[in-house]
């Protein structure tokens, strides 16, 4: 990361800190006005109290998007792209550093979920893990998906349209369209529309 990029990141962090704490409706409006121009592309959005954002310029989204209380978006070295009608639950995190995360339209992400686009490298026993960098990855979440509370979506995950991910699931790999998946690791439980 260049010095200019680091300075921009610090300025954006300071700007976020000035507005992140304001409660209620006035805070939502202040954050919309303060943060909107910083995003790569932003439709109408709601940003709750305490939301942490890094890499504003690498984050884009459509209209009617909600980032609930204390959620976080990290894209200083990655890309986050959200469609319209996407909602990120309280204390949830989308981390696209060294990765790309693409989320379609009409997606509900429950509280305390983690969407992680890259993994740490750890095979070199002569170096600390924190010094080994990341393996770049990608996460794709198509339209009309519900991710219930406490889920972890790992690099390489591809949730096809209409999926439901049960609470507490850990997902890596492809989940077929209109499937209900759950468990650790997540497995298909059933298809939607069939009892």
Task: Report on this structure.
- By secondary structure, the chain is an alpha/beta fold.
- It is 15% helix and 35% strand.
- It contains two helices and 23 strands.
- It has helices spanning 3-20, 24-35, and strands at residues 41-42, 45-47, 52-54, 59-61, 65-67, 72-74, 79-82, 86-88, 93-95, 99-103, 107-109, 114-116, 119-120, 134-135, 137-141, 146-147, 152-153, 158-159, 164-165, 170-171, 174-175, 179-182, 187-191.
- Strands 2-5-8-11-16-19-22-23 form an eight-stranded mixed beta sheet. It has a seven-stranded parallel beta sheet with strand order 1-4-7-10-15-18-21, with no helix packed on it.
- Helix 1 (3-20) runs antiparallel to helix 2 (24-35).
- The N and C termini lie far apart (52 Å).
- The mean pLDDT is 93.
TL;DR?
The chain has helices at residues 3-20, 24-35; strands spanning 41-42, 45-47, 52-54, 59-61, 65-67, 72-74, 79-82, 86-88, 93-95, 99-103, 107-109, 114-116, 119-120, 134-135, 137-141, 146-147, 152-153, 158-159, 164-165, 170-171, 174-175, 179-182, 187-191. The protein has 195 residues and is α/β, with parallel strands linked by helices.
Which key phrases capture this entry?
2 helices; alpha/beta; globular; 195 residues; 8-stranded mixed sheet; 7-stranded parallel sheet; 15% helix
> What's the N-to-C terminus distance?
52 Å
Rounded Rg: 17 Å
Strand content: 25-35%
- Please state the structural category: alpha/beta
Q: If strands are numbered along the chain, what order do they take across the biggest sheet?
A: 2-5-8-11-16-19-22-23
Helical amount: 10-25%
Number of helices: 2
- Main beta sheet: 8 strands, mixed
What is the chain-wise order of helices and strands? HHEEEEEEEEEEEEEEEEEEEEEEE
Shape descriptor reads globular
Give the overall pLDDT as a whole number. Answer: 93
User: Which regions have little confidence, pLDDT < 50, spanning 5+ residues?
Assistant: none
The tally of strands reads: 23
């Amino acid at each position: 990361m260049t010095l200019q990029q680091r300075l921009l990141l610090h300025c954006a962090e300071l700007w976020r800190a000035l507005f992140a704490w304001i409660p209620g409706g006035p805070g939502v409006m202040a954050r919309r006005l303060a943060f909107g121009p910083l995003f790569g592309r932003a439709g109408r959005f709601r940003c709750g109290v305490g939301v942490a954002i890094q890499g504003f310029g690498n984050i884009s989204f459509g209209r009617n998007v909600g980032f609930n209380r204390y959620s976080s978006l990290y894209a200083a070295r990655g890309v986050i792209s959200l469609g319209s009608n996407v909602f990120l639950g309280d204390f949830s995190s989308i981390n696209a550093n060294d990765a790309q995360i693409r989320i379609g339209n009409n997606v509900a992400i429950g509280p305390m979920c983690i969407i992680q686009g890259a993994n740490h490298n750890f095979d070199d026993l002569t170096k600390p893990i924190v010094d080994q960098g990341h393996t770049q990855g990608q996460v794709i979440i198509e339209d009309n998906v519900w991710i219930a509370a406490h889920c972890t979506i790992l690099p390489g995950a591809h949730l096809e349209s209409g999926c439901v991910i049960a609470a507490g699931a850990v997902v890596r790999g492809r989940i077929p369209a209109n499937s209900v998946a759950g468990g650790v690791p997540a497995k298909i439980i059933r298809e939607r529309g069939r009892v």
